[in-house]
Amino acid sequence: MEIKNAVITSAKFDTERGLSAWLMLDYGGSGQGFGGYLLYAPSGWKAHAEPGSFCGHFVWRCLEIAGVDDWSKLTGRTIRVRADSGKVHAIGHIVQDKWFDPSDEFSAIAKATGGAA
């Protein structure tokens, strides 16, 4: 796993497989997406989000790490990432030692609410 700097080139929500959010990242010559976690699935969909506030948590933590207060302000912000060739595992504040690892944090939420991540 490698830690490197990235510029957020876009921030989007999609509903391809339920509600998910993405940050598209530029490493300066290559790029990668961060996100894709199922944050919400309407009733009747095959996939269902587990109990806990994953959606709000994901959005809040992305904003917090990038140091902005509005989703539309994410584009152009520089962050750090902890990634390998297949996945961005965590994003970090560019100068402070603050990290967001969705797998770890969603597991903690699920444990606290009795659900599964």
From TrEMBL:
Superkingdom classification of source: Bacteria
The protein's name: Uncharacterized protein
